[in-house]
Amino acid sequence: MIFVARYNDGSCGTAEAENEEQARKLLQSDEMRFDPEQDQIVSVRRLKASFASRWFFEDQDSEDLVEIDRLSGLLGITVAEEILQHEYPMIAAAHAACEQEEPFFDKSADQITPIVHNRPQLRQMEKWEQNLLRRLRQAIKLELERTR
User: Fold this and answer.
1) Which of 10, 79, 92, 101 stands 20 to 30 A from 137 (CA)?
2) What is the pLDDT of residues 137-147, one digit of tens each?
3) To 10 degrees, what angle do helices 89-101 and 77-87 make?
4) Between these two residues, 67 and 117, which has the higher pLDDT value?
5) Is residue 99 part of a domain?
6) What CA–CA distance (Å, rounded) separates 144 from 148?
7) Which of 120, 54, 132 is nearest to 93 (CA)?
């Protein structure tokens, strides 16, 4: 079983274990860079989605020895969406609210002209982006405060 933990600093961790007790041990280990003086697990739950993750070299062209073989990873879309909904509900709500407040496309604007030449649509997309950035910054701040 895969478990997801939310830490007091706002981060999340995942661990494969037979039960929650074993998962907590893993999630509070040196392997997870857990510092008992600073870190605290706020919640642990079993992941419902099938786990999927992809890893890639972030900066294989770097001249920096520390960076050249650093791996970065992405969770599968279903896993990421589940974690967002359960561990970061304010961020998920910000996405939903943004689309209601400021739609990505202006339905009253010209729908025939390609977007790259359609100034009203480009302005609408820019307004949408700025609104989403503002809402996400607020949501992230609230999520970080929520676990402290």
Assistant:
1) 79
2) 999 999 988 87
3) 100
4) 117
5) yes
6) 7
7) 132
Domain total of the chain? 1
The C-alpha atoms of residue 3 and residue 17 are separated, in whole angstroms, by 7
Burial label for 15, CB within 10 Å (0-12, 13-18, 19+), is buried
Amino acid at 73: G
Report the alpha-carbon distance of residue 43 to residue 7 in Å, rounded. 7
Q: What is the pLDDT of residues 92-103, one digit of tens each?
A: 899 888 878 888
pLDDT band at 14 (very low <50, low <70, confident <90, very high): very high
CA dist 77 and 2 (Å) reads 16
Its domain, for residue 140, covers 89-148
Is 87:48 a contact under the CB 8 Å cutoff?
no
Question: Residue 127 falls within a domain, yes or no?
Answer: yes
Q: Which two tokens stand for residue 143?
A: 């999520």
**Residue 102 DSSP label:** S
Query: What's the CA angle centered on 117, arms 112 and 122, to 5 degrees?
Result: 95
3-state SS, residue 99: helix
| Alpha carbon 120 to chain centroid, angstroms | 30
